[in-house]
Amino acid sequence: MKLIDFEYSNIGERTTQQDFFGKIVNEREAIFVVADGMGGRKGGAMASEIATKTILNSFNNNIQSDSRRDQIRQSIYEANKLILRTGSSNPDLSGMGTTIAILFINEQSAYTFHVGDSRVYQFRDGQLIYKTKDHSKVSEMVENSILSEEEARVHHESNVLTQALGIQSAINISESGDMPYEKFDTFLICTDGVWGAMSFDQLQNCLGDYDELVSNSSANISKVISNQMIDTSSKRQDNLLLYYKTDE
């Protein structure tokens, strides 16, 4: 299994970066994690780091690939408990929390987990194949046909979450189920600093240009990202994206 992956983080207009990301890639499988912290500058940054490292450490210490999904799911619950304990033991960190978005992929299929409004997208030939559904107030309004996707993106309550790690002991983890993928499919894992800063058409155009360069074996990933997606979303705090692309 050969992969092309790229990650980028930008602090935007804020004074601190509260997002955190990480990955583990080997010959047979890979996991990519993106977290968007909240609850004060220090608390948000710590919550996103705790979540990401807890999940990746668990993945790294468990080599039984046949139980990977159960293990990843359990590590999300453990991350939630650890963030709750850390916040309750330190008044300066009270109320801290984080979103989480995870892509797990092996030679057979891809699989996603998420809590909050950090997203995973799957594109094929520049067209959307799959997108996670946000745990947010405006997402529920879209589901009930009160808002369109674009209206929800720019809505003044777009950052009001209904689920996040570190807020309460009971969490709802959304999972995709098995997702088949093909050569040159693109997966994007990102915080709302990416998808919230541009329309879906703009996002799709960025990914389409990248697809064309990669398929022609002349990719300059940094140039494509910096000239388009970064410029478009650079005024948002949560400018964190992890670019993942299948090669075989």
Summarize the topology:
Elements: E1 3-10, E2 19-25, E3 29-38, H1 41-61, H2 68-89, E4 97-106, E5 110-115, E6 119-124, E7 127-131, H3 137-143, H4 149-153, E8 174-175, E9 186-190, H5 192-195, H6 200-215, H7 221-233, E10 239-246
Antiparallel strand pairs: 1-10, 2-3, 3-4, 4-5, 5-8, 6-7, 6-9, 9-10
Which terms would index this structure?
7 helices, globular, alpha+beta, 248 residues, single chain, 35% helix
Task: Please give the share of residues in helix.
Answer: 25-40%
H and E order = EEEHHEEEEHHEEHHHE
Mean pLDDT equals: 83
How many separate helices?
7
Distance between the termini: 6 Å
Please provide the count of β strands. 10
Biggest β-sheet description? 5 strands, antiparallel
Classification by helices and strands? alpha+beta
How would you characterize the overall build of this protein?
The chain has 248 residues and is of the alpha+beta class. Helices cover 35% and strands 27% of the residues. The chain is built from 7 helices and 10 strands. It has helices at 41-61, 68-89, 137-143, 149-153, 192-195, 200-215, 221-233, and strands spanning 3-10, 19-25, 29-38, 97-106, 110-115, 119-124, 127-131, 174-175, 186-190, 239-246. The strands form 2 sheets. A 5-stranded antiparallel beta sheet has the order 1-10-9-6-7. Strands 2-3-4-5-8 form a 5-stranded antiparallel beta sheet, with helices on one face. Strand 4 and strand 5 form a beta hairpin. Helix 1 packs antiparallel against helix 2 (68-89) and helix 6 packs antiparallel against helix 7 (221-233). The longest helix is centred in the N-terminal third of the chain and has 22 residues, at 68-89. It is globular, with a radius of gyration of 17 Å. The model has no long low-confidence stretch (mean pLDDT 83).
